[in-house]
Amino acid sequence: MNEQSEGLARLKVIVADDQAAVREPLAAVLGLAEDIDVVAAAADGTEVLAAVAAGPVDVVLMDLRMPVLDGIETTRRLTEEHPEVAVVVLTTFADDESILGALGAGARGYLTKNAGRQDITRAIRAAGAGQSVLDREVQNRLLATARTKAAPAPGDAARQPLPDDLTPREREVLALIGQGLSNRGIAEKLFISEATVKTHINNLFAKAHIRDRADAVRRAIGAGLA
C-alpha cells in the first residue's frame, strides 16, 4: 500500500491519542519525516477504525487509554479486520497487563512516551516492514514476567526445542533478543550491521516459527539462552 515518492516508500500513518496536546504535535513532528505521511489524527478507537476503513493506512501509532474504544480493543479489531495495518503502541503505561494485552491483541511494536522522535520513527518504519520493536523498558518487563512465571506445561510453545538447522549466529541473536537488546544493541555487540541483524532475525523467526519479538523472548528463555 506504500507509494513511491522521490525514491522513498512513504508510510501512511494514523496518530491516535485522546489528548490533543500530545496528538497534534506528534502528528506534526512525524509529518516532517521524508518517508511518513500522517493521513489522520484520531482521538479514540472509533475514529481510528473509521480512518482505516477510508484508507489506505500502513501503520497506526496507538495510545492505549482512550475513551469510547480503547487502544487494546482497537488493536484487536484492526488485527482481525485489517491485518495489513501494523499497530505500534505509544503509551505512558508499561505494566504487565498493558504490555501483554497490547501484544496479545496484535500490536507489532510497544514504546513508552519516554521514546524520542527517532525511536518512534524507527518503530513505525520497522512495523511497516513487518518487524517488531519493543523499547528496552518493555523488553525488561517481559523478561522479568517470563522468568517469574511458573514453568510452562509440556508442549507449551516457550518450551518447544529450537530447530536443529538454526546457525550458531542465529542462536546468538536469539540469546541477545532474550537479554533485551534492540537490533542496534545486537549489531554493536556482534560487530555487524543492523541490516545483517535483521536478516538473521528474519531467518530465525521463519525457521523457529516465532511470531514476534515478545515470542522470541519467551523462546529464548524456554531454551535456556536468556
Topology (SSEs and partners):
Blueprint: E1 3-5, E2 8-16, H1 20-30, E3 36-42, H2 45-54, E4 59-62, H3 71-81, E5 86-91, H4 96-105, E6 109-112, H5 117-128, E7 133-134, H6 136-148, H7 168-178, H8 183-190, H9 194-208, H10 213-222
Parallel strand pairs: 2-3, 2-4, 4-5, 5-6, 6-7
Antiparallel strand pairs: 1-2
Helix pairs in contact: 2-3, 3-4, 6-10, 7-9, 7-10, 8-9
Short note summarizing the structure:
With 226 residues, the protein is α/β, with parallel strands linked by helices. It contains 10 helices and 7 strands.
Written overview of the protein:
This protein is of the alpha/beta class and 226 residues long. It folds into 2 domains: 11-147, Rossmann fold, CATH 3.40.50.2300; 168-223, Arc Repressor Mutant, subunit A (Orthogonal Bundle). Helices cover 49% and strands 15% of the residues. It contains 10 helices and 7 strands. It has helices spanning 20-30, 45-54, 71-81, 96-105, 117-128, 136-148, 168-178, 183-190, 194-208, 213-222, and strands at 3-5, 8-16, 36-42, 59-62, 86-91, 109-112, 133-134. Strands 1, 2, 3, 4, 5, 6 and 7 form a 7-stranded mixed sheet that branches. The radius of gyration is 18 Å and the shape is globular. Mean pLDDT is 84; it is low at 1-7 and 150-155. This is Two component system response regulator.
